[in-house]
Known about the structure:
Chain A has one domain (6-137): START domain (Alpha-D-Glucose-1,6-Bisphosphate, Chain A, domain 4), CATH 3.30.530.20. Chain A has helices at residues 16-24, 26-29, 115-137; strands at 6-12, 36-39, 47-52, 59-69, 73-80, 83-97, 100-108. Chain A contains three helices and seven strands. Chain A is α+β, with helices and mostly antiparallel strands. Chain B is α+β, with helices and mostly antiparallel strands. Chain B is 28% helix and 38% strand. A seven-stranded antiparallel sheet of chain B has the order 1-7-6-5-4-3-2. Mean pLDDT of chain B is 91; it is low at 1-10. Chains A and B meet through strand 1 and helix 3 of A and helix 1, strand 1 and helix 4 of B.
Amino acid sequence: MQKPKLVYSTFIRTTPKQLWAAITKPEFTRQYWGAGVNVSDWKKGSKWEHVFEDESRTVGITGKVVESVPPKRLVLTWAAPNHLADKSRVTFEIEPIEDMVNLIVTHDQLKAGSAMTKGVSSGWPRVLSSLKSFLETGKGLTLTCGH
Amino acid sequence: MKTKTRKNNAMQKPKLVYSTFIRTTPKQLWAAITKPEFTRQYWGGATNVSDWKKGSKWEHHFEEEADPVYIVGKVLESVPPKRLVLSWASPDNVGDKSRVTFEIEQVEDMVNLVVTHDSFKAGSTMVKKVSRGWPRVLSSMKSFLETGKGLNIWYDQK
């Protein structure tokens, strides 16, 4: 049976380096990814965490860095810390085109009908819209999702 | 349940759904889709031409070209600035008709635009073209509405 595979393609007026930094550096991520930051040394095999920056410092998502080729390709495993068996995979592909970058985010190995599938289907369009606004205008969008 | 899901998958026609959040107003977004003076600034030089009344004809034009009409169709629903439903076909192959729905919803200081392209005929050649096109057009539309400048979206086709 087919597993859900979500693919999002967006074109952003930026550089691959700036886009890589926006995904991996907390000082940028917190400006557009709701209240969350992505924390890791981004080396292959390392752990990474999506941490909510409120007083709770809750880890929202945890996983491993599967591939890391800055500033072109980042592959992560992805699971809620209280539901590690429901593990999926996120791939960021970054390609420069003239004065833009084409970012393709693929979230696959999801379980059909899972809460995670539903959550990320709603979350990615918001996060990627806010990422583009942040990189092009300096200001992310008001995201009320993700929790 | 499993059987039903499998059957549905096998029979499913392509349905493309794009959701984007844009810091703008529903009125500005509606104008960006329907008014040539805005559309040409982000849709690769192209415009959408119609009076946008239900039942009217609409055309997608590349104004600079000798044979400018690229897409033709009818306005199936028109509820400015919330909902626009169009039929969509190449003038060379009007039998290969599909449907595009624009849904515009205000969310705080943003608008959530959901574009759904569906009702493709079996074996439609349009699916592949528009799968490449929509992410570019919608990215450029967002850039235009938020920064005043669209993107060079047909970089590989000129």
